[in-house]
Amino acid sequence: MADLKTKLELYLKSNSKTWEAEQENIILQNDSDGNGDYIRIFNVDGLAKPTTEQLALYETEATRIENNNEIIATRKQSYGTWESQLEEIYDNGIDVWKTRIAQVKADNPKE
Asked: pLDDT exceeding 90 applies to what percent of the chain?
């Protein structure tokens, strides 16, 4: 199940708003009661607080985004630092580097 924040980001985007611009107007809370996160405060100008049903519409896309973010993090770790990549290119040539990067992408495909 996708995070509430990710679904809210999509809800805001679909209504021409952004999380970055509105995050001070939204407070998420988790009472550690097993019910998970919920919207405690939603004061976005010109936009009603989304219902559970409205947020559920974003579940698939939010899950895809979260999965891809994990894949991107794995890829970055596998790529190594820019410095180590440049050293690899200098020592072994660009074609060896391209082959390794292509294999990292093939081993960690995005959805």
From this structure: 98
